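Entry for the shared binder. Reason: the reviewer on the internal report wants the predicted structure included alongside the sequence.
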Amino acid sequence: MKTRAETSILDCQSISKQFGQVTVLDNVSLKLKKQEFLAILGPSGCGKSTLLRIIAGLETMNSGQVSLHGERVSDSKRVRPTEKRNLGMVFQNIALFPHLSVAVNIGFGLKGRSSKKKQRIKEMLELLELQGYEDKMPHEISGGEQQRVALARAFAPNPELILLDEPFSSLDSKLRVQLRKELYQILRKAKVSVILVTHDQMEAFTFADRLLVFQKGKIVQEGSPAEIYHKPVSPWVASFVGESNFLSMEDVQEILGKTLSSGISPMPQAEWDPVLVRPEDFIINPQSNEQTANGVIENIEFGGDQSSLTIKLKSGTRVHTRVSSRENWQINEKVQLRIQHFNPFDIVPSISP
């Protein structure tokens, strides 16, 4: 028999959910270890937020079960109330009480003596670097500060599991990055388990120990951020988690020429199609010789630290590459394209986009 320490903090088994005739979740199972950071990544409408609401006890399921510390808290017939699950939640809609001060918002869910509540509020203000904001109203502070108040409120009851549903989506891009880094450090320091729901692959990559990629209510791939990016199981996953070039074997052979570039394994004997090549995996050499050139630069987009180049191969296929923006390339310049790494897909029946 498993002890509390050995049991996963969260265990979801065979969860399915329908809204009318629409299946939102289709037999989804997952486990979460203590102090693990898990990201659920997928496009809008794939079911990821519904799963989070089921875990939180805010939504019912048609079949399956949810267990916390080995104890069942939800199935198709019964649901333990959210407030009895010892978890914290921060959603896209921050939902602070507009008529209550920062301190009162943070302490809203706390129980016990007034002195203990005040002490816990003080600890949360220090943890989230909100000292001096105690008496301010939500409309008097910035969006990033409001999000930190929401997180402090979620932390205050000392939960072991934190659920984050698109918590940065309402913020501008610079603030999103800043707050994400701060939040990561705070959550690690607090030694809690975390589930982050997001449609932003960079958010998931930089935040999570493990990713679940969702598509149409199913988990289509699970693994570390590096595994998901470098070894996607399908063209759809490859496209969703990063910019991708899908090339035919004829294109790959044209680019490679007679010799294989450094880092390339010998070509597989079977027919693999398509072949994934990430933009950063191309090597570009300038060429004035028509015989050695295999492409021409059609477009250049400046992107700050990097530039994106569109190169047309002799076959007519267009590929997208990335280079340092300090490199001096010109439109219509002939180049020799080589590949450092590629991933041939073994095509099997998969969910279409």
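Summary line for the report: The chain has two domains: 10-240, 248-344.
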